[in-house]
Amino acid sequence: MRLVVDLNKCQGYAQCAFLAPDVFAMHGEESLIYNPHAPEEQRERLARAVAACPVQAITADGLEDFTGEPGPGPGQVASDGR
């Protein structure tokens, strides 16, 4: 799984570091460091971290929602087909 954080959007709220501390960490008060190639066993924590980002600065390629079904990506809205 590949992660990308838009560091221009990131405001240092640290929700990701709280929810997935093995992948995200704060360096100082506002600088985020992260592993862009997160391990597969962190999938659920990463999904929560991506969803919790208040400024939607995190995207993850290959991340599925908690049901195991592919969900809409960041910035996309689920459609009922109408």
From TrEMBL:
A Pfam short name: Fer4_13
MF terms (GO), sorted A to Z: 3 iron, 4 sulfur cluster binding; electron transfer activity; iron ion binding
Alphabetized UniProt keyword annotations: 3Fe-4S, Electron transport, Iron, Iron-sulfur, Metal-binding, Transport
Chain segments carrying region Disordered: 62-82
Protein origin, superkingdom: Bacteria
Keyword Transmembrane helix among record annotations: no
Entry-linked InterPro entries: 3Fe4S_ferredoxin, Fe-S_cluster_ET
Cofactor: [3Fe-4S] cluster
Biological role stated in the UniProt entry: Ferredoxins are iron-sulfur proteins that transfer electrons in a wide variety of metabolic reactions.
Protein name as catalogued: Ferredoxin
Organism: Streptomyces monashensis
